[in-house]
Amino acid sequence: MDLKTLVSDSRGIAEVLSKDSSVVTHSAYVASAQAYLRKCADQIEKLQAVLVKSKRAHYYCEDPWYSCPKALDGCLDESAGKDCNCGADEFNAEIDAAMETQAASAAVI
Ligand SMILES: [Zn+2]
Predict the structure, then answer these.
(1) Which of 53, 58, 70, 74 has the fewest other C-beta atoms within 10 Å?
(2) What is the model's pTM?
């Protein structure tokens, strides 16, 4: 599941535990689990915000011969092709992949 679902599920589990005392009878454990899950959800949301802000722009140089082909004004060196050569696409794809990371729900609980 993606991080958005992980956050939602964590909050959902915390809510179930607060409403249905038959799920777990040890109240101290329930309170601890709720606090943990809410803290996890908060941390994941902070992480998501940081990840989105950390995406990189393509390399731009005042001499457009050296700019990445995908930079705002492109690259004058036609031999550079049309693909990103500055690493921004690869880096941003890793961020997108991290945002969509599959995780087992059971691992959260
Ligand atoms: Zn680039």
Answers:
(1) 53
(2) 0.63
Over the chain (109 residues), what is each successive 10-residue block's mean pLDDT? Answer: 74 74 66 81 86 94 96 94 97 89 45
DSSP annotation of 33: H
Task: Report how far ligand 1's centroid is from the alpha carbon of 47 (Å).
Answer: 24
3-state SS class at 57: coil
Burial (CB count within 10 angstroms: exposed 0-12, middle 13-18, buried 19+), residue 26 = exposed
**Tokens at residue 65, please?**
């011969």
- Distance, in Å, from the CA atom of 72 to the CA atom of 83, rounded to the nearest integer, reads 13
Cα(103) to centroid(ligand 1), Å: 30
Give the distance (Å) from ligand 1 centre to CA of residue 92.
Answer: 10
- What is the distance in A from the centroid of ligand 1 to the CA of 96? 16
Distance 58 CA to ligand 1 centre (A): 4
